[in-house]
Amino acid sequence: MIALTLAEIAAAIGGELVSGAPEQVVDGSVETDSRLVGAGSVFFALLGEETDGHRFVPNAAEAGAALVVTERAVALPDGSATAQVVVSDGYAALAALAHEVVARVRASSVDRVDGQGRPAPLRVVGITGSNGKTSTKNMLRTILEQHGATVAPQGSFNNHVGAPVSMLRITHDTRFLVVEMGASGKGHIAKLVSIAEPDTGVVLKVGLAHAGEFGGIEATQRAKSEMVTDLPATATALLNVDDDRVASMRAITDATVVGFGTSAGADYRISGIETDRSGTRFTLTAPPVRPGGDGLADATDQPGGTTRFPETVDVRLAILGEHHAMNASAALTVAHLWGIPLAAGAEALASMTRAERWRMELLQGGPEGVTVINDAYNASPDSTAAALRTLAQIVRPGERSVAVLGEMAELGEFSTEEHDRIGRLVVRLGIGQLVVVGPGAAPIHQAATLEGSWDGESVYIEDVDAAVHALQEMVRPGDVVLVKSSKSAELRFLGDRLGGVTE
User: Fold this and answer.
1) Per the database record, which ranges form the Mur ligase C-terminal domain (predicted)?
2) Is 151 part of a structural domain of the chain?
3) 437 is a domain residue
């Protein structure tokens, strides 16, 4: 975090400084987990569903926290030098501090220039969508960090706690801030947008992920649209125009709209998508004239005065799945709008070996001749369908495709219908063997059994332990095995075991 005095922090978060000198300067990390606190950290004691962060204030103090932010005064260990600010709402205070820090860094960077004398203000991007947020965030970070100090969250740090904590990692040297914005209800993304005030807001897809929490696809669309509704006219809304629900957001934003996708209406046009076991390939073409709206780089602001528009690049990803062409194109487009040539972005992406742990991760260190795609970090109807299509595409003649599928969670009233749809898709794609794990996923097995003339190609197994034993007997050389589920640590590690990962 940037250096602030205790008095400045207390004022920013509307709190009362109950211990500590107002002029004391704090510039350590901001944590909500006392186990991560180190010397000089700021610890927010938040009230959670399962625990109360106030219980761990003494631990944070003993670990060297410079400041604890609490909702009630907590006794600190004798002799502790830790300061304390009391606020009425810890979550609101965390958001307020993040907003203050981002605003200060933005203001201090207005006149900043890079090594070639070009403007280099802080640029902030927010990314949301039912699928692909984390992969797109990782891809964009990979591109941007080649061109300036970049802050982006690790993993899926994208909620009302994780996103502000990520924002608070910036310093006055930060050039790019990438914020992944997730939501489980109305107003969540709007709040994160109000904290970060993005220069560019990206909407990847509106799908049925978390539909049970949102209350249906229309409610999901309204929630995701919060990314663009409050953007000012000086900002850019980057929309996936292949998704009609996302494309319709053009009508509800004052920002300049830039579209990406495979359709004719895309400003940044994707073509020639191919995927095989070596990864994913496609071509991305920028528009013939620069989309305006954010006052960033001109058409000739690259070193040597080279023209940026139009520009076409062949992209080579060592990442499985044609759906990653959309994620990569979103990342490339943001970077391009911020002055980074498509070719430079594509070169950076070529260095990525995976989008994220347990996301379409190709593993070949298990039984001889067996290839595993471990995609068990999470699962929605759209992401599961995409993973199954990838499995079908990369199987070579003489090999057998095997899909190990667990439950797609948080679908609410749509759960049975969507699991049924996936079961039927497995058959229609010609997947050689289906293994369904757990009661929540049982409709996949039932639907696959009823679809077509299968005879034993679908197996239902009650739990992961039994699935481990069954797969040890079932898997044979030449198999390509996909493991896919919603946040099942057991299935993630099942995929690792099959793929020979022991970490």
Assistant:
1) 359-486
2) yes
3) yes
